[in-house]
Amino acid sequence: MKARKVKHLDPDGTLADNAQRVVSVRLDELFDFVPAVLDPKSVKKLHAMRIAAKRLRYVLEVAAANCFGPYALTATKRVRELQDLLGEIHDCDIQLPRVQRIRVELSDEAVAELRTRAAGAADLDPALASGLPHSEDWAGLAALEHYLTVRRGLLYDQFTTVWRDIERSAMRARLEYAIAERPSIGGEQAESSVTIR
């Protein structure tokens, strides 16, 4: 997913003002994936949402403590939690097709071997099916495939719970308010204390 361009950045402006613009765009990117990601089959959208969360998290980690109100630090933690969870889901989404592909390859090898063993026979003797190549690997691959499928489902359920909590807690509105705040530093507003040069 290509990052959206942040418009109206001011090289002579404050870090807080410029970071506010960046956070606003990154926040929009993150929330624009809903409702698509509420379909567990939206593998690509879930991965793109993880990237959007990562972008938002990084700008918050740099700017939250010095530029924004206190809620920005809480939002940083929530976005990190979301990114980590989406990363775990993505790992399953990458591993599962690989395991399935290997299982199919081994199955094709076993079928080829069984055809060789049955060469010229009118019917297949069940005894020929014993000791096929990779027969011990099949059980492990099947177990791994089941594990990844179930783990992915559980992680996705956690994601929907976390996302509902993010929405219920009004994280977006609270973060938008927090990035508009400028915490006091020694009696002065943060926006006048840090200028980009």
Task: Please tell me about this protein's structure.
It is built from five helices and two strands. The protein is mostly helical and 197 residues long. It has one domain (15-192). It has a two-stranded antiparallel sheet with strand order 1-2. The two termini are 30 Å apart. The relative contact order is 0.16. The model is unreliable at 190-197 (pLDDT under 50).
* Helix content, binned percent: 55-70%
> What are the segments in which pLDDT stays under 50 over at least 5 consecutive residues?
190-197
N-end to C-end Cα span? 30 Å
Mean pLDDT: 90
Q: Structural class of the secondary structure composition?
A: mainly alpha
Beta-strand share of residues: under 5%
Secondary-structure topology with pairs:
Blueprint: H1 15-31, H2 43-67, H3 71-117, H4 135-168, H5 171-180, E1 184-185, E2 188-189
Antiparallel strand pairs: 1-2
Helix pairs in contact: 1-2, 1-5, 2-3, 3-4
Domain CHAD: 15-96
InterPro entries: CHAD_dom, CHAD_dom_sf
Pfam families: CHAD
Keywords:
two-stranded antiparallel ribbon; disordered C terminus; CHAD_dom_sf; 68% helix; 2 strands; 197 residues; mainly alpha; CHAD_dom
Structure in a nutshell:
With 197 residues, the chain is mostly helical.
